[in-house]
Structure formats: structure tokens, C-alpha cells
Design a protein that fits this description.
about 375 residues, alpha+beta, T-fold, 2 domains, ten-stranded mixed sheet, about 30% helix, about 30% strand, globular, binds adenosine-5'-diphosphate, binds magnesium ion
Length: about 375
Amino acid sequence: MKRLTVSVLLLALLLSGCGAQMSPDEAQESIQVIAMDTAMLITTYGERSPAAAYACEDTIRDLEKQLSRTLEDSDVSRLNASGGEPVEVGEDLGVLLELARYYHGSTGGAFNIAIAPVVSAWGFTEDSFRVPSQAELDGLLELVQGPSYIGPRSSGGAICYSLAPGQAIDLGGIAKGYAADKIVKVLQEHDVPRANINLGGNVLAYGDRPDGAPWRVGIQDPARADEQNAFAGVLELTDSFAVTSGGYQRYFEEGGKRYHHIIDPATGYPADSGLSSVTVVAGLGEGGGFPGTMCDAYSTALFIMGEEQALDFWRDETQWEEQGCPFELVLVTEDGRVMVTEGLADRFTLEETSGYTLEVVSR
Ligand code: ADP
Ligand code: MG
């Protein structure tokens, strides 16, 4: 486990291109955390910024211990190894199982944490990449599309869940968003006036920038994924989550084809929907909800759905009403377009050199 205290240099990287005028007397702390299979950057401001930044790190590490598929004694690993027996789960996993069940329903099955055995068959869990046979995928998909996990059941004061034999869950599509929701509470408890938290593509723009302007959040250009700071455009955000999913982040190539880590539960294959990334943006909300988790689940699911279905999903107001949490989208398409939903239109600037054309989508 690495804990690097990094200085203003990394902050400058994070805010690249923004030319922030920071007030010189505002304390800040910036730490890099390698966790949940990604590099995270936590920058907090205000008098209690060091304590706040390290409390954010503790929150992430605590969640990783519970939710990792690769740590043997995590709640998730115990559940996955249970062979169908009920397993006691901690509060965080209990909440995530219920949220994931909801997102599975709301996305018509595109978001499905029971995808785990398929993700593993492609080698994404252990970094041992391979293309599974159709017969193997067909067998695994029966588990994925089969009955959902059972629970919560109360047993002697403990909360228990069980999976069907052979089933397993993977919270990779949702855990960082949930961590971001918990981090909001940590920042509030530490009276942090502003913070910029980047959990490997899950950005939390908390408060505003030290100069009073909104935070600038770059949307990576998927076509130039190996270039740092190669953006398709930039969002200006305050008190918001912005979560991006794309096939360019984690993939392998075989026989001249690229296979990435976001799996369409309908086919067992990496999603091939014509989108190269999806960013979901939502405000922090009134508290009590899980907007960060929602953005994470929906960025994964809408990437699988593709442009048309994703925009229909955005237009469907029942989604908003049920969750009490409006959201907006930035879609980058494989054919060179950036689509921005109307609520973000005046907060998004296309990167001129990117070569994309911009379309604003209305309701
Ligand atoms: P990242 O974790 O790279 O930010 P995502 O949030 O889109 O990207 O999550 C991708 C991860 O989610 C995969 O690595 C896998 O663990 C898991 N996953 C893959 N396909 C699905 C799916 N259809 N539903 C839910 N989770 C998925
Ligand atoms: Mg996600």
C-alpha cells in the first residue's frame, strides 16, 4: 500500500489548464492513494485539510477491505466463496447490494453485479486476459441472468445474504462511486470548505475553487487515452459528482481486436454500443441519497446501452423522481461526436483541438 504525500505539483496536474488563482493563505493537503485497482488523488482545503485528506483515505481503505474481490477475507470474497450459504455482511455491503438491485432494475438489466464470473472469465479480475469460448460464456450467463441474491435476512442480529451456488458478485462498477458518497460525509464532518477528489475517473468537485470559480473537470478524449490531459472537453462544476466509464481504461488486445472490461450482460462480451465514453454528472443532493453511487452505476450501464437508449433513459423523468436526484450526461461517440444534455450545455466547453463536433441534447 502506497501513501504518497504529494504537493502542489500534482494539484497543478489535476487542475491542468485551469490557471487557478489560489488564495495563498488557504491551507491544502494533496495525497495520492493507490486503492481499488486505481490511482486516486485527494485534495482538501481549509484548516483541517490534512486530517480530512487522511480520513478520506481511511474511508477508501476500509471500503476496499470489505468490498474487494481479490482480498480473501473481504465481505464480498466470503459471499462469493459461500457456495450458496447465507453470509453475514457489514452495513456497507448491505447498502450496496440493495442499491445494485435497484440499478439492475432501473437499467433494464444492463447494470448487473452478478456479472462477476464473466468478468473473471475474460481475465479482468486477475489480469490474466483471454477470450472465453461462446460455450463457456453461455454457461456463465445462466448464472448472471439467473435469480438474484437473496436477502437481507436477519439472523441473531446479523444481516445475511446468500447467492445461488456458482454465482459471484463484482462491485467494480459501483464501489468508487459509493466511496465518493461516503467521502462527502467525511468532508462535511471536517468542515472542509472545498475539495477535489479523483477516484480513478470518479470525480467529486466539492465546493468551489479557491478563487471562487467552479472546478474544471476534464473529460478524457477516449481516442487519446494514453495521453494525459488530452481532453474531449472540460466541465465546470461545483458540488457535483462526475463519473466516466469507457472502454479505453482497461482492456487487452488479441488477434487485432480490443476487449475491454465493461461487459454487456446480454451477450457476455465487452459492450460494443458505438459509445467510447459516458460521463454522468449529478449534484451532491440533500444528503441521505447516494448520487455518487448512482453516477457510477449509470455511467457503466449507459455505456452498455448506447446513445439512443442512454438518452431515452436520461429523458425518462421517473428515474429522477424515484431517486430524487437529477443527472446529466456527456456522451463521446466512436464516430467523433460529443453529446451533452441540456442541463450541462453552459458548463461544458469542447476542446477545440480534439476534432469532435458538439451536439446539445434537449428533452
Ligand atoms: P471503472 O471501474 O474503470 O471506473 P466502471 O465504473 O464502468 O469503470 O466499472 C467497470 C467495472 O464494473 C468492471 O471492471 C467490472 O468489475 C464491473 N462490471 C463490468 N460489467 C458490468 C456490468 N454490466 N454491470 C455491473 N458491473 C460491471
Ligand atoms: Mg461505474
